Amino acid sequence: MPETTSAPRAQDEVAELLSDLIRIDTTNTGDTATSAGERRAAEWVAGKLDEVGIDSQILESERGRASLVARVPGADRSRPALLVHGHLDVVPADPAEWSVHPFSGEERDGYVWGRGAVDMKDMDAMVLALVREWARTGVRPPRDVVLAFVADEEAGGKLGARWLVDEQPDLFEGCTEAISEVGGFSITVRDDLRLYLVQTAEKGLAWMRLTATGRPGHGSFVHDDNAVTRLCQAVARIGSTRLPTVLTPPMRRFLAAVEEAYGIEIDPDSPEEAFARLGSISRMIGAALRNTANPTMLEAGYKANVIPGTASATVDGRFLHGQQEEFERQLASLVGEGVQREWIVHDQAVETTFDGPLVEQMVAALKAEDDGARPVPFTMSGGTDAKSFERLGMRCFGFSPLRLPADLDFASLFHGIDERVPVESLRFGVRVLDRFLRAV
Ligand SMILES: [Zn+2]
């Protein structure tokens, strides 16, 4: 279809692009046989890029598990490239729980509604809208911008980002820095002051299975070697112990920024009261002050009067950057004797510094669009595809800029019911990304 001068500007088409993308159901169940939409979404993105003359490649790790990569050539091709990545998959959503159908992409009350609206088809749509406008109007970024729209983030990225990094690293040739999700959003302190949380670190992931063994036997006898009892003691110790506070560099700066913004002092050992001012995001932020381990699954026995020989539990462990060995020591002492521990999923923590030209341009772009903006670094308690791209030596940032209404409970929208994003926030994000990507 020929483009005309009346083609919509990025800000004017971003909401529609997001709606269209939400309508492509890319639910990631963790099982390839039932994860259908990624290929269609990747083809849809390819079509949107092709309309404006941007070539892209679709790559499949397994049948249907499609990711798309494109390179927008920069003015100075000798400079290192910047990766902008976003995942196309989403977590499941049950329509019965929602006010609108989660895959309707409906625009209502100034919001685009649907699964993926904040995690993270919003960023996908903002980037797509922007590069489409650039292509139509002949804008070249200062250096190469590599775009990656990937599969499988919600199941750990093994069939998306991790696969691309392992199998197709040449696609990211020259990329030294990357931006993506969970960062760049605002928390309103007061009318003229908003903190923008830029993610510079992610905790590491250590999901483990604990297995206790004991002597099987009859449930009616005296029995002093019960696997269930032993397991439960270990699980209770893990679940009820709060590990010590560790202030990593990003969180030290984050705490200082919160103290300054609110004129308060925060005791890092019990930050809950102070953090309550930040709203629901405090649950995520609070978890970045220490290693954590939460028991999540239990399995033992098959009959009321049979003591089983083994019992097992699953624990979701997360450790801060530089804390992996300490975390293992902490766990060993909590698990205790007679219980084996094995990793089910283990992945590194990542951390970079909040400085340098890239960060300066993030700050400048946010301030240019919001004169009450105060950008601050923070550590994310969860994991993203940054863990994969960091393996190629990139500095990774969570920077998907959104200026949010003061009363929006943003944190609860991630994987939540009635996930939605304000259209004004999307337009703001496009403007910030435009400034940022033209300047770096
Ligand atoms: Zn996400």
Structure description:
The protein has about 450 residues and is an alpha+beta fold. Helices cover about 30% and strands about 25% of the residues. The protein has twelve helices and 19 strands. A six-stranded mixed sheet has the order 1-2-6-3-7-18. Strand 8 (about 185-190) and strand 9 form a beta hairpin. Helix 1 (about 10-25) packs across helix 3 (about 120-135) and helix 1 (about 10-25) packs across helix 12 (about 425-440). It is globular, with a radius of gyration of 23 Å. The model has no long low-confidence stretch (mean pLDDT about 95). The structure holds zinc ion (ZN). Zinc ion binds near residues 119, 120, 153 and 181.
Give a quick summary of the entry:
The protein has 440 residues and is an alpha+beta fold. The protein has helices at residues 10-23, 37-50, 121-137, 161-167, 227-240, 249-262, 272-275, 281-286, 324-335, 357-369, 386-389, 423-439, and strands at residues 57-60, 66-72, 81-87, 107-108, 111-113, 145-150, 175-180, 185-190, 193-202, 204-213, 217-218, 292-300, 306-307, 310-319, 339-347, 350-351, 373-380, 395-398, 420-422. The site of zinc ion has 5 residues, from loops.
Give the key terms.
single chain; 440 residues; alpha+beta; six-stranded mixed sheet; four-stranded mixed sheet; 19 strands; globular; binds zinc ion
